[in-house]
Structures are given as structure tokens and as C-alpha cells.
Amino acid sequence: EMAIRDAKALSRHMSEWDRAAPGARATMLRDFMERQKGRTALEIDQEYAKGASLFLTRITAWLRLTYLFGTHVPLQIQAITVFVMSAGGHRFLVEFLEVGGALTLLEIVSTDQTSAESKASALTLLQSIARTGRRYADVMCACDALTSVTTCLRTSTTPQLHALAREVLCALAVASDDARARVAVNFGSLLAATHSEGVRAAAAQGLRTILEHSKAVVDVSLVATLLESSALSLQHEGTELLKALHRDPTQRATVLRVVVAGLAPSPASDTATAAAAVARMAASARLLATLLVNRTPDDSRLLLAEPTVLRLARMVAATGHPDCQMQALLALQPLLREEASVLESARAALGDALCAKLRTWPRGMPLALDPLQVELLATASLGVSA
């Protein structure tokens, strides 16, 4: 493809495009990208005799007409990206948006009929547009981008699409306080998407990104459901999100109460439910041990007003679940060592010997308990009742 120097040459080139079959158009797009990728908007326009907008309009129209059944959708979007993301390409971007380009991209990502590759290309361009500036993120929100991209995240099955959709939503969250609140609500709703670990993990990661920059209303109890997963990666996401929420003074007490609630066993209706309860209890104890490191006097008062010590003791008695037992011990030890009221209560209920063993047992070594000690831990009254 040679540079188009005058209006007649531009007209011939546009006529060639208009007459071309899909395969020939794809070849023209590849030639265009090979020649123009990395050039500035001014250089691209000069290559098309200051009529590059005519070509952009044609590519956009072709995409809009064929995205449901066309085989060249990623290529079309990549060609559009060369225009709208070029240095100084503000005019091309505005033209693309004015003819409904953003709406077409949002239809691609939220429609079942389009391929994963097409969705990935559309999400990549949407993310670039949203990051161009708050004005453009706001324009996309006005096109109901939050609903479309959330739908894409909820229904997608690949890690790539989960990550891209999450990143687009986080980019859109900067548009306004309302957009940020809506994105947080949408992410929160996806935490309950039990059909997909990938969706739930992406939602948790997205919420953490939002919390790094501002406050957001998050249902802490929904976050805690991630701790019931058998997938360690999802447990990790839940733990990290709860830590982030704990750093917010307005959420701190709620997080602690939810974590203590996670130490309680659930009535096991089936094996899966029992396994989920054990996973949740172990993860809650592990998290509690971390949160105890920097606890405040208010935190201590709250924890001791809850059945924290009692539930940890019951978990330590669960010899059939060694990981759960060890995590509970690691959370119980700082309370026994640093809270005088806990130590006094434990000595009275468990005896000096068992209490000393629990306080000093080495980290990582399997806990050895005789039947009498197990019985004491499982039945003793420690702190407030469960």
C-alpha cells in the first residue's frame, strides 16, 4: 500500500474498499496496520491525503455490520486501535465514539455469539479508551458500559477475559463517585458467582484495586464466603480483600466479627458442606492470627466480647483436621500470651500444664494432645459462650 497523495487517489482507494470482499478487506487492513502502526495521527492523515477519517468510518461501519458473524472482528478492532490510540489521535477517537463505536464494542463483549478472541480485542480497546481520560470513561458509562462489561465478566470462562473485564471496570470506576460505587456493587454481586472461581477471584481483585484508591461499600459477609472455597487461590483473594477492608476504620469491627463468625462450625448436611466449613474455619483462623499482630485495645475488647477464644479452643481440639488445628493454635497463642484475662480463664478451665503447652508449642510442629486434653478443649467454658 502506497501513500495516497491526492483526493482522486483517496477516492479510488475508498472505492476499492467498498467493492472488496471480506478477504480482500482483511488484506487491506493488514497492509494498513503494517504501514501505519506506531505513526502519529498527523502522519496517518497525511498518508491518506488528509482523508484518513473516511477509512476509519468505513472500518467502523464494517465492524458494526459484521461483528455477530464476521471472522475478522479482532483484525477490524486492531485497525481501529491504530487510529484512535495514535499519538495526537484525539480527533479519530471522537469520530469513532460519535458514530457509535463504543456501543459496538460493548455489544461485542456482552453478546454470547461473539468469540472469546473478539471479546478480548474489544475489551482491550475499551480499556485503552477508558484510560485516555475521565471524560472518555464518563462517555462509556453513559453507554451503560458497566452493565455490559460486568455481563462479560460474569459469563466468560477464560482467565484472559476475566482479567481484561476486571481491568476495564476498574478503569471506568474513575469516571465519577457514582461509577465507582456501581463498579463496587457489581464486583460485590459477582463474589457470589459460585459457578466460577475465576469470576469470583477477578471480582475480589477488582474490589481490592478500588479500595487502594478510595473507600467503597463492600458486603464483608459476601467476601467471607471466599474463605469456604477449596481453591487456595480463591481463599487467598478473600483473605487479602478482608485485610484491605480491615484497614478501613469504618469496616474494621465488621471484619473482625465476620472473621470470628468464620471460626464456628456449620451443621454438616453433606461432605461438601463439611469440607467447606473446615476450609473456612482454617482460613479464618489464619487471617485472625495476622490481624492480631497489629490489634488495638478496641480490637481486643471486641474479640474478647465475642466467642473468639472458645471457638479457637474447639478447633484446637479437632485432631482430625491438623491444618485447622494448627491455624487455630497460632491464633490462640498471642491471646494466651498477651491478654491477661484470656490466660487467667484458660488456666482455670484447662489447667496450668495444658495452658503452658498451648502457649509455648513450636510453630509448624504437629500438636500432640492426649484424650483428656482433647476433651478439656472440646468442653471447657472459655470466655463468652459460642
**Distance between the terminal alpha carbons, to the nearest Å?**
77 Å
Low-confidence stretches: none
Mean pLDDT figure:
93
So how many helices? Answer: 23
Share in helix: over 70%
In angstroms, what is the radius of gyration?
A: 29 Å
Shape: elongated
| Secondary-structure element order, N to C | HHHHHHHHHHHHHHHHHHHHHHH
Number-wise, the strands total 0
Measured by DSSP, the beta-strand proportion falls in under 5%
What structural category characterises the helix and strand content?
mainly alpha
Biggest β-sheet strands, sense, barrel = none
Secondary structure topology:
Blueprint lengths: L6 H13 L2 H15 L4 H7 L4 H15 L6 H12 L5 H9 L2 H10 L5 H17 L1 H9 L2 H11 L3 H14 L4 H14 L6 H17 L6 H5 L7 H15 L5 H10 L9 H22 L4 H9 L2 H9 L5 H17 L1 H11 L1 H9 L10 H9 L7
Helix pairs in contact: 2-5, 4-5, 5-8, 7-8, 7-10, 8-9, 8-11, 10-11, 10-12, 11-13, 12-13, 13-15, 15-16, 15-17, 17-20, 19-20, 19-23, 20-21, 20-22, 21-22
Describe what this molecule looks like in 3D:
Helix 5 runs parallel beside helix 8. The protein has 23 helices and no strands. The radius of gyration is 29 Å and the shape is elongated. By secondary structure, it is mostly helical.
Which key phrases capture this entry?
386 residues; 72% helix; 0% strand; mainly alpha
Short description:
Helix 17 (271-292) packs parallel to helix 20. It is built from 23 helices and no strands. The protein is mainly alpha-helical.
